[in-house]
Amino acid sequence: MTILEATFTVDLRPGQQLPAAGGRFDLSKTWTGQLEGTSTGVMLTAGDPASGDAGYIAMEQFHGVLDGRRGTLTLQQLGTMAGGDPTLEYVIAPGSGTEELAGVTGTLTIAGIDDDGTHHVTLDLA
């Protein structure tokens, strides 16, 4: 296994509403560190985050360089919050890599978020 570190900033914009989703957002991220590039995607939300009960799903396609290898990957997220207790599954979608990233799989963990919104992640590549 290989452990890498990266950061990202995210821009969320409300998107066209869809049935069965409380909200839809278009997202774009800028990645730095051992994952260097940009990603764009879609997030669907439901529930009431203010009450501590909510969930979201998101898919985003990353374009750039991962630990010196260039290509694209799709990142998949499933986040839930029950009673204010959050859980997050954040993975590289199997089979989504192209070019030098073909065959790459793994998980991402958010290690922290700075006051300015910068997210710190670790990537655990299989």
Question: What would your notes on this structure say?
Answer:
With 126 residues, the protein is an all-beta fold. It has one domain: Beta Barrel (AOC barrel-like), CATH 2.40.350. The chain contains no helices and eight strands. A hairpin with a 4-residue loop joins β3 and β4.
Can you lay out the helices and strands and say which pair or pack?
Blueprint: E1 2-14, E2 23-33, E3 35-48, E4 53-66, E5 69-82, E6 85-92, E7 106-113, E8 119-125
Mind telling me the C-alpha Rg? 15 Å
| Content-based structural category | mainly beta
Strand content range = over 45%
CATH superfamily: SO1590-like
What ranges have pLDDT less than 50 throughout 5 or more consecutive residues?
Answer: none
Sheet with most strands: strand arrangement: 1-2-3-4-5-6-7-8
Oligomeric description of these chains: single chain
The CATH architecture classification is: Beta Barrel
Total domains: 1
Question: Which overall shape is indicated by the principal axes computed on the Cα atoms?
Answer: globular
Specify the number of helices. 0
Secondary structure: number of strands: 8
Task: Work out the helicity level.
Answer: under 10%
Let me know the average pLDDT.
95
Organism: Brachybacterium alimentarium
InterPro entries: DUF3224, SO1590-like_sf
Protein name: DUF3224 domain-containing protein
